[in-house]
């Protein structure tokens, strides 16, 4: 098998409304909600860049311009910070703009995750690419998406990120089943989107990281609407699996579901505790709160 092409681009679908975080998301994209002082979407981009990604493709919608603005230059703010000698703040402001190249495409109507990925077809072109969902944050020594890219380079086939979930929670996720391959690998045989309780033996949930061949675009273009009348990425992956094969990898690292309110608060505490200048005060404050309850 010939070596796979280098994965240079990542598609970040960010068109969702974020209704679980209303009223905060009435005027702010949920992806801009901060983990301490860094928007969650920036942490996703930083993970991609650490994995060798060079270009980020945002799939946006109406009301999401704050995301594009965050990764664009802010000349007036930068000039003000420079005049005042605030070099550390200036570096933090400039950092998002310098991480990668950026492109944006619009998903004009909410037609599902598969449709969102399909919207990026013209920008990605005929090359493999990553898809990274903003609701799933990963803190790992080796970037989560980087773990998948390494497997894609080794196998030349699509790779999806997996995490085992507790029994009884399978219906909350897309679930992968198949033949185990080593300690963390899975030769995928079947994918089920949010299976009914008791209908699958596997507890390997698909989490928000994928590395896919360009053939997925043609597959998604011919995939009919599924659950909820939307074009489901899981349905496209099932077709890809039957035609070319699909591999699953249990990614190593801590995962945080920031699309869930409790998960977001837990992630906030985690990322605060990773900051040396905040760690002691945050730990002491959390311990005091827990003692009262």
Walk me through the structure.
By secondary structure, the protein is an alpha/beta fold. The chain has 2 domains: 251 residues, Spore Coat Polysaccharide Biosynthesis Protein SpsA, Chain A; 34 residues, no CATH class. Helix content is 36%, strand content 24%. It has 11 helices and 13 strands. A 5-stranded mixed beta barrel has the order 8-11-9-10-12. A two-stranded antiparallel sheet has the order 2-3. Strands 7-13 form a two-stranded antiparallel ribbon. Strand 2 and strand 3 form a beta hairpin. Helix 3 packs antiparallel against helix 4. The chain is globular. The termini are far apart. 39% of the residues are buried. The model has no long low-confidence stretch (mean pLDDT 92).
Give a brief description.
The protein contains 11 helices and 13 strands. The protein is α/β, with parallel strands linked by helices and 293 residues long.
What key attributes describe this structure?
293 residues; alpha/beta; Spore Coat Polysaccharide Biosynthesis Protein SpsA, Chain A; 2 domains; five-stranded mixed beta barrel; two-stranded antiparallel ribbon; 36% helix; globular
């Amino acid at each position: 098998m010939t070596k796979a092409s280098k994965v240079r681009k990542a598609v970040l679908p960010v068109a969702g409304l974020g209704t679980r975080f209303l009223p905060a998301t009435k005027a702010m994209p949920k992806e801009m909600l901060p983990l301490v002082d860094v928007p969650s979407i920036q942490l996703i981009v930083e993970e991609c860049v650490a994995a060798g990604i060079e270009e980020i493709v945002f799939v946006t919608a109406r009301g999401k311009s704050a995301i594009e603005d965050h990764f664009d230059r802010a000349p007036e703010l930068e000039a003000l910070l420079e005049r005042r000698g605030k070099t550390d703040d200036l570096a933090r402001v400039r950092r998002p703009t310098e991480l990668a190249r950026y492109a944006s495409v619009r998903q004009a109507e909410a037609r599902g995750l598969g449709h969102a990925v399909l919207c990026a077809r013209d920008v990605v072109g005929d090359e493999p690419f990553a898809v990274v969902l903003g609701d799933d944050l990963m803190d790992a020594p080796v970037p989560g998406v980087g773990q998948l890219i390494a497997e894609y380079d080794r196998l030349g086939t699509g790779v999806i990120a997996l995490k085992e979930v507790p029994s009884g929670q399978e219906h909350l996720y897309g679930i992968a089943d198949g033949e185990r391959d080593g300690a963390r690998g899975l030769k995928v045989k079947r994918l089920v989107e949010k299976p009914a309780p008791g209908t699958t033996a596997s507890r390997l949930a698909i989490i928000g990281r994928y590395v896919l061949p360009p053939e997925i675009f043609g597959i998604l273009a011919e995939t009919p609407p599924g659950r909820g009348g939307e074009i489901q990425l899981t349905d496209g992956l099932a077709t890809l699996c039957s035609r070319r094969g699909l591999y699953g990898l249990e990614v190593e690292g801590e995962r945080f579901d920031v699309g869930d309110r409790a998960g977001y608060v837990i992630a906030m505490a985690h990322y605060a505790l990773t900051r040396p200048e905040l760690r002691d005060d945050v730990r002491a404050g959390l311990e005091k709160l827990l003692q009262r309850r």
